[in-house]
């Protein structure tokens, strides 16, 4: 039996997502992002292809680094307009039975107490098929528009994120005990008050004294996704994430990342094989090599050069509009996505501005695989064997065509080789992915917050003693 390959669909509640300009292609339907039937139809297609889930990205803010303006972002619909991703969970769940629904939400722009209720609600509505992609955000425009003046420093954002997830673990895992909800009609007791606890969190960034507002959802804490690839991002992912997404432009970059992150996971006391790593790719395929290549050439004619550099500038924090197309990308320290700069300026290839724009024009910062099903299956299996990655986070060039092509051509070829699932496992998203129970395992740091009364006693003992004025 060949090693099983896993697929996620990478999308966003916007136009074009990471293929700027391809919204103009006559078969692209990303402009229907506002319509629930678009999302439900796509979800049914992905479930037919036994995808682990649909991973819905998000940004708060807009891309205004390129040429010092948001003109090209607005002109080319480069992730603006963009709608809220969490509201898609319920309609997607209604249209499917198994598909996981990964929702991106930032620890920088929403208080953990209110977010905990929104996330628990989604887990209830989907019967335990929700995951949370934990991001710290990278757009200055987002921070300014929620009254923060500007982004915190990169490393400080992860310090905030660490406390943020601590609050959520306390709320999800410790506030309501198992069996707290009785629904005892005879004695008219819905919930046993003795089994519902205040979390009494008082930290550096958040004060949350009280009770979680929602009763425990099917997974308590939804499946945890994370995409940070900088030093602090890797440390955070190794400690918390169950699924990790990476955008690696080359196989050698990916191999190094996977090896390092698995070592970090083991050092954190967790099983590195129980954390799935997905790498970003775009697949363009058809019945024959000739048809696939013709499709790729057709798509390339719609790529927006300015739209591509709008993304590249926003992700890196570097205004690529100030350089000539033949200039080589240099490493510059910024407050944006550190891993982007490391992979491009510090990788095994030198990139000119023009090459960067062309490379990122379809599918963002992952490679584009073009070919007939047999060739694509060979490539995917080779990447899995050579890098130890678990699967692929599949972006689209044109939607829903790109996803339909993968489901119609690539999935059957991989299944024929014994390298892809033929059915879903039962249960919640966590159970489908890992085959264990619906809750986070005891090896996860969330386990330390399940006895909230013990947590409060421990924190009280560790708190610094304050001397009196006369002391």
From TrEMBL:
Residue span, Luciferase-like domain: 26-385
Keyword annotations from UniProtKB, A to Z: Flavoprotein, FMN, Monooxygenase, Oxidoreductase
Molecular function via GO: monooxygenase activity
Pfam families in alphabetical order: Bac_luciferase
Alphabetized InterPro entries for the sequence: Diverse_substr_monoxygenases (IPR051260), Luciferase-like_dom (IPR011251), Luciferase-like_sf (IPR036661), NTA_MOA (IPR016215)
The family this protein is said to belong to: Belongs to the NtaA/SnaA/DszA monooxygenase family.
The name this protein goes by in its record: FMN-dependent oxidoreductase (Nitrilotriacetate monooxygenase family)
Organism: Pararhizobium capsulatum DSM 1112
């Amino acid at each position: 039996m060949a090693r099983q390959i896993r697929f996620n669909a990478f999308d966003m509640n916007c136009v074009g997502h990471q293929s700027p300009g391809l919204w103009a292609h006559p078969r692209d339907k990303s402009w229907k992002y506002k319509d629930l039937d678009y999302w439900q139809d796509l979800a049914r297609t992905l479930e037919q292809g036994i995808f682990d889930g649909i991973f819905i990205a998000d940004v708060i803010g807009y891309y205004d680094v390129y040429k010092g303006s948001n003109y090209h972002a607005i002109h080319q619909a480069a992730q603006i307009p963009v709608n809220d991703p969490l509201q898609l969970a319920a309609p997607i769940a209604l249209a499917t039975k198994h598909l996981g629904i990964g929702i991106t939400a930032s620890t920088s722009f929403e208080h953990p107490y209110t977010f905990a209720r929104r996330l628990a609600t989604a887990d209830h509505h989907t019967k335990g098929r929700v995951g949370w992609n934990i991001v710290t955000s990278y757009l200055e425009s987002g921070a300014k528009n929620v009254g923060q003046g500007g982004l915190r420093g990169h490393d400080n954002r992860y310090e905030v994120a660490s406390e943020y997830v601590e609050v959520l673990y306390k709320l999800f895992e410790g506030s309501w005990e198992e069996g707290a909800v009785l629904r005892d009609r005879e004695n008219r007791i819905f919930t046993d008050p003795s089994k519902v606890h205040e979390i009494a969190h008082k930290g550096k960034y958040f004060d949350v004294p009280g009770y979680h507002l929602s009763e425990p959802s099917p997974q308590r804490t939804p499946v945890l996704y994370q995409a940070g690839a900088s030093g602090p991002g890797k440390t955070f992912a190794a400690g918390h994430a169950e699924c990790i997404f990476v955008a690696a432009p080359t196989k050698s970059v990916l191999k190094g990342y996977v090896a390092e992150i698995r070592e970090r996971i083991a050092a954190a006391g967790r099983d590195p094989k129980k954390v799935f790593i997905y790498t970003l790719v775009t697949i363009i395929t058809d019945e024959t090599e000739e048809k696939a290549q013709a499709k790729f050439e057709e798509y390339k004619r719609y790529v927006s050069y300015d739209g591509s550099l709008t993304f590249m500038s926003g992700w890196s924090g570097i205004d690529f509009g100030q350089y000539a197309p033949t200039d080589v990308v240099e490493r510059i320290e910024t407050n944006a996505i550190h891993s982007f700069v490391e992979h491009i300026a510090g990788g095994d290839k030198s990139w000119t501005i023009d090459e960067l724009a062309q490379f990122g024009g379809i599918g963002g910062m992952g490679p584009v695989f073009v070919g007939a099903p047999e060739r694509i299956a060979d490539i995917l299996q080779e990447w899995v064997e050579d890098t130890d990655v678990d699967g692929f986070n599949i972006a689209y060039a044109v939607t829903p065509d790109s996803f339909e092509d993968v489901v119609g051509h690539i999935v059957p070829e991989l299944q024929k080789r014994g390298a892809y699932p033929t059915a879903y496992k039962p249960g919640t998203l966590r159970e489908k992915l890992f085959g264990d129970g619906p809750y986070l395992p005891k090896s996860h740091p969330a386990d330390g917050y399940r006895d909230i009364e013990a947590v409060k006693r421990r924190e009280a003992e560790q708190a610094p003693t304050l001397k009196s004025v006369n002391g």
